[in-house]
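In the current project phase, we have settled on a layout for protein records. One protein thus recorded is set out beneath this paragraph:
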Amino acid sequence: MASKDSEVLKLQSTIQTFPVIDNHAHNLLRSHQLDTHPFESITTEAQGAALKDTFATLSHLRAQKQLRRLYGCSHDADWDNILEKRQHWLREDPKGLIRKCFESIHSILMDDGLATVDVVHEYEWHDQFTPGRTGRIVRIEAAAEHIMRHVLAKYSDIHHGVPLDENAAWISFSRNFEKLLKGYIADPAVVGFKSVVCYRSSLDIQPTDLRARAMRLEFEDYCARALGKGMYRLDYKTLNDAILQTTVSSLSDGLEKPAMSKPLQLHTGLGDKDINLVKSNPAYLQPLIAQHPRVPFVLLHSSYPYTREAGYLTAMYKNAFLDLGEVFPQLSRDGQVSVLRKSLELCPTNKLLYSSDGHFFPETYWLGLVQFREVMEQVILEYVEKKDITTDQATAIVENIYFHNSNELYNLRVNLDDLSEKTEAEPLRLLPVKYDANSFEHFMHKNDTVEYIYVQWVTLMGVLRTRILPVAEFTRLIKNGGRIGIAKGNTGTLQNDHVTPVCAPVGQVYVEFDLSSIRRTIPQNPFEAASVFGSWSDEKGHPLDECPRSNLARILHGLAEDFNVNLLIGFEIEVTMLVKTEDTEESRKYKPLATNHAWGSLSPEDYQKALPLLHEIASSLKRIGIELQQFHSESGSGQYEFVLAPLPALQAVDTLYQARQVVDQVASKHNVRATLHPLPFPGIGTAAHAHISLQPAYVEVELPEDVEAKFWIDGVLHHLPAICAFTLPEGVSYGRVTDDNWSGGSWIGWGTQNREMPLRKVETGRWEIRCLDGMANMYLAIAAIAGAGYMGAFEGDRHGARPGDCQCEYIWISFFSFFLPSYLHPYLSHSGKLTHI
């Protein structure tokens, strides 16, 4: 008997303490928004006048009692006393309240489409309160509306009586929506998708190809309303069905048996008064679930009051799952017990998923879990007492519903045994890095002779660091979601490893691999190898603010999301080739490889000494997949230029560093030193010009005409002194930037095809940054340029009249009121102005 009692006590402990993966929740409100949403809504979907009645519901009265315990109120505290205590928490320790509410939540899978980022925190922000990273659930209707705004923007002439080409608009929307879906499907941060079609029309989904005429009429009406009234909400039956069908098709496209796609969550059952309650029955989804057996469908919110119908679907279809959220805490205890019993009547227990449907207030997360544990204990212990199941079986059911079912369904790859072995020295990390193991396997299949992987990153000082891993160890890290650790101080040491004020002996940085950057090394390498770039993260996998590569990626993401802008960058590698001299003076250790040449010439000396080397470099670049557009001699002695093909910004910077290594390594094989030094000899300097084009990001429509001027003139040009702290980071950089030297000049200005300006407009949409050299940390330099451009696109021309297009030579531009300082320190005082980007 004692043994049986101990087993039951152990089961009770598991029910009350086992960690959970909250498979469906929403963002918390920003602090300035807390008073704009009624707190009493935490236990109801009612709105407006109906919300006043919530105080008379059993769910509210029960929650009120539990909140007293959360806040530390007296047992008889009324609602006003509870709110007063809550305000004290919000004033004194708001994050402490969140941590208290999130105590036993290991990770959250968050639908971030409920409100905009000016109202709620970004989904990543919540990572600080849980051991694991927050997984993103993309709400497809919100994504579609975002695209619609961009697509219809160019049809705004409807106000002036110009007919709208609905067919072209629909084709453009469809193409871009599918493109966006493919991006999200490939994004490891996105763990699933969600549809609120139940709210917008109903769950009675119709095949869109049978309703072409209705589609056309509805889209025409939608466009007129959106352009005329600014109402972009998608609530037209046929349009919503088409968006859902497109999503499901995109998820299943290209899958190899028996692979399953990322899950699709669907709102079912109870909601606010927007829904058609009758047609929120998940039974309407049976044809859709049957037609797409490799797309997992998650029926949200217990499908209440249609829990039995949902249970039937999960029992009959391998790809149907039931979420048990929202009824906790919105129903009474008896209602919750009934829902859990009904879900267990027919639904396989490996198909049930815990969620809180937490939203806006952290207390919704806490109440949902507290009440779920109470009801789970009541129901499960009764089954054990009646000997329907053993305590071991009950324990497995509980652990599966809480954690393992979501872990498997959303492919989170969390090993609880690994987590239990963590110590205080290494905080818990719930979600491993989600590498694309298939792409790595594909790379190794094509390059099966590779023995080692160069893991590389660029420090704050612009130093390229490398750690070499045997391919077996690298493969293990990829499969397990692992990283490599480096001392935090190594991110800011000088080129000779001397320390700087930013170095700290305490702390660890983790390097996460970006497999999209993996590339073979050149054949001249001592062994078969490949290289891959990494970004810095903390022990939980959060990107570090000081990581140059992560900062660039973050700013590029903001440009794409907020302004539909991608940057396409083509770098020029200017390099001076040096050979050793017999002169014993230190300053005369090297001399130019060739001296008898000029820009674009091919002298006999070049032909004999340089061309074989240049050819080998070009051939090596080609062999490892780096596209070279041209190469030629430059003006300086021993100076040559390699022009790389344009690529998306982050890929372009990665490729630039890989190409530079090729130049350096091939040159060293010829006993030649390749240097990027801005001024290795008096006279002609060495730059690192970058050609940057603005391209549409997610939506393939023409960019607004003023985006270019806002980005380059209002943004980059206005902040140029601050930018130069990153693009010209060394004192010697300013010896190169002089007037009448085709080096970009010393004036703050821009000009079409004017090489005496730091910003040269090459053609519409394409500009050249000339105040840039090889000493720069190129991730930071491009981040500064992109960030300044973002600020310009956001703020516009609020700084006054824009400087005009300078078409005169440097001797005639003295009317410009600003010039670039001739040394570094003045730029450092400006660089702080860019920190808030």
